Every structure is written in structure tokens, then in C-alpha cells.
Amino acid sequence: MTPLRYAIIAGIVGAALIAFVGYRAFQNKIYRPEATVSVSGMAPAGQTTTGNEHTGVPHASSSVSSLKTEGTGNYHIEAIPLPQSGKASAMPSLDRPIVFPASFPTEARKQMSDKINATAAVLKKDPQNFNEWLALAIFRKTVDDFEGARQIWEFLAAGNPKNPLPFANLANLYAFELKDPSAAEKNFILALQKDPNDVLLYRQAYEFYRYVRKDDAKAKETLQKGIAQMKSPDLQYLLDHYSEL
Fold it and tell me: In CATH, which of 1.20.120.530, 3.90.550.10, 1.25.40.10, 3.40.50.800 is domain 3-84+98-244?
């Protein structure tokens, strides 16, 4: 295991999952501009929460109450109830076994197991808690349980169709871990439709088209759309220096 990943895992089990994870070009990022999202259970449809603080991942605590992601700007989330009745069978299992990759630090395994089990216990009592589901998906992805993370984010996307966060995470998961470019592209498009003002999301989509799809035309088009939408100097730099990067 690389020192970088070891440091990330240590941070997760010690206090918080940091990142979406740091800024790595192709993996472990949760998108959102600067904002704090606090959702104790799911708010009624139409109720919104706003804030001005954000990183890529929920803080790892027994009850997650805030989400942070990279980026700047104010941001606005509409809480939508999770699937009910007919979709109840789609709820991911909260008793899914925890299988660590061989490279996962031995000393961190118990702490991560405790985090996963504690989060699952909260969800068994309150299955409508968006933040705890999101935390569980990140924990699952951290231990390379990509299928477990996928099931949760698909569940959240179905229950929160106006929230770009599950779609953005699915896009990256499909692109860089599950190696399904078609599903990745679909989710990038959906995430950008739901939040056309997220610079980081445009950059991630650009990287997907450039390095995974090997489609320079689409990569440049993505940058151009982001520039037209937000006049972003960062995206403009990537476009102006495309051939040099």
C-alpha cells in the first residue's frame, strides 16, 4: 500500500474520511461546491438545506451530520425522501460482509469494521438517513467493496433524483473502479444536468473523456461547456493548454 493511501485510511479511521480522496485524477472524489449539508433523516420533499462549507466526504462519526467537498461557491441541496413501498426491496443489505483487500493495514481493520457496523446500526433504526447512507458508501469504497458502494449510490440516486451527489459518485465509480465507461458517461451527464455550476465535476468529466474514453473532442467540449456556464479560469487553463498537459 502506498504511503498516500495509508495516510488516507489512517485519517478515515481516526476521525474523518478526507477527500473524494484528496484530488486524484481518476478516483475517490465526492463532488460538490463549498457547502455544508446536514440532513437528520430525510426532509420532506421541497425542503432545502444550504450552507457554505464542504470537503469530499462525510465526517466519520457514529452519526454523520455534515458533508464536505472540494470547490468554492454556495450550494443548495433539495432533500427528497428515499424510496418507499414499491422500491423498498431495492434497499441495500446492512449486513453485507466486510472483506478487506490484502493491502489494507491490519491495525486499521477493526476501526473500519467498527465504523461500518456503527453506521449500519444507525440505518437499521433510521433507514431514511441520507448522510449515514452516504457515509456507508464511502466506507465501503474505502475497503474496495465497489459493489457495495455501487448498490448504495444507486439506491440514493433512485430516492434523490434531484441531488447530483449520488450520480457524480456513480460516474467515478463506474469510470475508474468498475470499468464501465457507458454507465460512467450516463451518470456524468445526469450529474451535470442536476448541477451545471460545479467546476470540479466538469473537470472530472473532462478527465473521463480524455483519459478513459480517449475522446479529445468530448473532453474539450466538456471544458467549453463549463467555461460558458461559469467563466472558470481553471477550466479555461485546461483548454488553453490542452496539448501541453
Answer: 1.25.40.10
